[in-house]
Amino acid sequence: MSAPRLDLHRWDGVDTPPSAKETARDLGLRVAAPLALWFLILLGAGWCLVDGPLAGLGRAEEGVNTWFAHHRTSTFNAITLVFSWAGATVSIVSVCVVVVALLWWRTRHWWFAIVPLLAISTQALVFFLVTLLLARDRPDVVKLDDSPPTSSFPSGHTGATTGLYLALFLVLLALGPARHHLLEVLRRVALGVCLAMPVLVALARVYRGMHHVSDVVAAILNGMVAVWLAWHWLRVEAGTRTRDGQTRANRARKKEYTA
After folding, report:
1. Is pTM beyond 0.85 here?
2. Domains in the chain: boundaries
3. Mean model confidence pLDDT for the chain
């Protein structure tokens, strides 16, 4: 059995909107069902760190937060504030709305444009349910941000940042090189920024005393799973693209759409 591979061209030729029935079916089977399993896995991992066999490790990792707290400077306080704010809900939602709107305008394919929105929504749902059921205290250090009334595990800022910017990274790769040199330079810079943002936000949250290391690692994994599910949310038959780039499923959908 071969390992699952990420197909950057899976959306090529899918130029007819899925029906309401197809949308509901694929969101249920390809997103909701595996997301429920991932929620149980993440919840179990969190329990192991808080009350289970890895509780000792969970307490020991607070030494990282203590080290950061003892080595804080005004410069790094200001820098990490920027990245901590970049992972806040208002920032993530604002950027996502702009990205989705631009993608919809650029491609005219809403089913492709909603990938970043679906990514941050699915990771947010898992984050909310895990923090609702698992109570983990935040690191016992002076905190540089206000503490939201949620559990420390996993990090919401880091998960949302991973979901948004990793989804945007895949979208930029799938769209391919820009025709103009300047736009291609900007695209490559954007690709680098998309990869760096989750790491920078994660470091900022640990530095500022808001999360343990395991909180941000779990959040990055949560965001990655959400992006994988969002990227594959619509069923596309592998190996069935025709010469004009369409898929058999898409051609059948187009017939129904134009009938």
Report:
1. yes
2. 20-49+74-235
3. 88
